[in-house]
Amino acid sequence: MPDxxxxxxGPRIRAGRPSRRVRTLLVTLGVLAVLGMAFxxxxxxxxxxxxxxxxxxSSVFTTTLSTKIGLFFVFGLLMALAVxxxxxxxxxxxxxxxxxxxxxxxxxxxxxxxxxxxKWLLLAVTALVGLIAGASASSQWRTWLMWVNGVPFHEKxxxxxxxxxxxxxxxxxxxxxxxxxxxxxxxxxxxAALTHYLYGGLRVTSPGARATAxxxxxxxxxxxxxxALKAVAYWLDRYGLAVKSSDFKATGNWTGLRYxxxxxxxxxxxxxxxxxxxxALLFFATLWRRTWxxxxxxxxxxxxxxxxxxGLYPAIVQxxxxxxNEQAKEAPYVQKNLxxxxxxxxIDDTKVSEYAGKSTTTDKTKLRNDANDAASxxxxxxxxxxxxxxxxxxMKNYYGFPTNLDVDRYPTKDGKxxxxxxxxxxxxxxGIPKNxxxxxxxxxxxxxxxxxxxxxxxxxxxxxxxxxxxxPSRGDLGTYEQRVYYGEKTTTYSIVGGxxxxxxxxxxxGEKTTSYVGRSGVNLDNPLNRAAYALSFNEPQILYSGAxxxxxxxxYNRTPKERVEAVAPWLTIDGDxxxxxxxxxxxxxxxxxxxxxxxxxxxxxxxxxTTADSLTATNNxxxxxxxxxxxxYIRNSVKATVDAYTGEIKLYQWDTHDPVLKTWMKAFPGTVxxxxxxxxxxxxxxxxxxxxxxxxxxxxxxxHVTDAQTFLSGSEVWQVPDDPAxxxxxxxxxxxxxxxxxxxxxxxxxLTTTFTPNGRDNLSAFMAVDSDPRxxxxxxxxxxxxxxxxxxxxxxxxxxxxxxxxxIAETISLLSRGHSKVxxxxxxxxxxxxxxxxxxxxxxxxxxxxxxxxRKVLVTYGGKTAFEDTLxxxxxxxxxxxxxxxxxxxxxxxxxxxxxxxxKQALADAQKAIGAGKEAxxxxxxxxxxxxxxxxxxxxxxxxxAQDAQSKTEKPSGKNGS
Length: 962
Prior knowledge:
The protein is an alpha+beta fold and 962 residues long.
């Protein structure tokens, strides 16, 4: 008998069918693939949950996730039901197939093909539209939470007299519901029409009626629902006019009703609403009349009305009523826009004062002394000296400083506060001796210490005068936890606390090691956690490495802004997080904002544009982290801190009246602490935030005026000038400075900026805001408005004047010879006795020194410019008299005559050092900075010997001083 199997003794195998072993393998691979995909999705969810739990903000994760899931299922199910029910209904209402036309015969094969799979096809279609709708709805979790938790503003809009919360919290949700309704109606109409066509309810080429009575009734109801939704849209559009943006040539970006909106569009929307309601009723009436005639006539009337009433009529009103007398017609509406915009951006209490711009004081001694009292002029620019900090205080290559340092206030030894430039010595993985997984993530894990310098002083070499320095850092800040595990440059993960020791810091005795003892991060003792992180970070070694053991914790999301954004995803984060030493801890302070795009009549601004300046142009990490880029309401509602060692995040309520913050606090209870819990030590370091100030100054270029006619004329429009010391063409950044305005009796820590006329370079105004929260005037904006009848030099003109003076240009040329490069620091503006004092430090980088040193100071006042080695010397020169500060010794040809030979020799050595310094600057190949630095040190030593010797000479002798 012939063999029908695979061989004499082999098993029988059917031709074309895989063996059992192959089928088992394929099934196994399929199951593993499904499990792998499932675990990948689970790993992302699990690591997020572990992180939020580790920072004690698990409620943020659960609230956000549950809201997204709820919206997904509710709206996904609603969309699936809407489409599915209409498909099912269209199928139920199909006509009996009797006489078969050619059209129906061609469709018959499609009906027969899908007949066995009708239920599965229905489920597939409804599941698909449900998934898409659910995913779209889940992205509206912020809109839902704001609607369901919204609190009143207790302010009403001037047109409809509704609480502003309706526009900020309610209207966005109603618009989403309306959009969802339109989508459901359109998809249901399309699905029903296709089903009716497939089963003969609709006919295109067949003789006789084009639609059965059942199909006519079904589709007319869906069309009626669509038109009814359009009626609702017309009604909501009426309120939408209060927050509608339009391009108004007189004012640029405009929000709110104008004359044509109030007198043409608003009544047009009301009329169109009524027409749409009637049209919808006509569609519903086809259930009884079974004719399309009246609904089609009604729909055509609605379309024609939309064109004539909604489009043509407003254009006629604009052309023949508004344009001939625009200012008079628009003035009442502009006045509403002025009031709302100033309130929404917190600039309604701005104090605008007239300022002469030129001093009438003839007493030069008084002017010189007043210059010392007007401001603690900061000549150390935090945006220039980072390389200097790096060179002098880096200590090890694996440390680094941020590109832009920060300005804060710290007490001196005598208890007085001084402006201080500081930065953290953070971890720089690019500088470690050898990059590998253990070094990058286990051994080099943190930075070490604060480095701080006086903002108003440099030493004789042009270097910062450090008040906190060395490694470990020591100085005026006292004892504090110096390890920096969380910082602006810490962008990778570290695994700490396990068997692998970390490098703490190095000194003359060698490397010191440590183990992290904080409770931050996620514990990796659990194999499930290790597997999840191995997958999430695409690093298999996390799963099996012996460097991970009992107590190991993984630290990630380590930048301060990233951490605050994660635990408060409803906040907009200021671009500049800054460190402060508070109660023995390094705390990162992060300013955060609540925003809205629904404040009626308030003009919109784009945060990314209005907060851009010359610093953000060169350093993207300084850019604002905006949840909503287009806004027309903003408040600095939250002050946040991040501990540099533990990573602990705290959110403090700052604006206790902000309804947007109250809404989010209601949605996420317990996440924001009360303002009263802010400690006095932390309050000492809080300040007015830069990004809010930049938004406000941009708005004040137009909204500093309160009169509608002036606003419409555009004659008082200002602009923020470009940074004169930067070639990027970007706006000058605001500067922190301790100074006093004319109506103040003492210096206050302030944030300042200047304005120029639109399209010109002379000065229009000077603006400052009190930035010390301990003062009663915190947040008070003061604007000094310069006269328009005369011109006062603006920053660009001052810079040009500085560059054009031959003596100064010659010195600059000398300083920049060879490989040297001149860098200009912040051009500070200080009001002084009716005039304006400009101060700009000038740095030189070059030769063997690869970091900038302060070499000169520019001072301009009243049309006179001085360019000297020190600020005091420059002020003395510009005012023509010496101030009360210490002045350098006589540098004449011969030392002054003195009876003390030691003093005389010391002064001779000082003159010799001065000569050596000048000679070092005039070398043929460019300045010899090493020789210059040595000469300055010799000069300092000689002056100290002279001072000590003079003190001994003047000291009384004898026990009783006789």
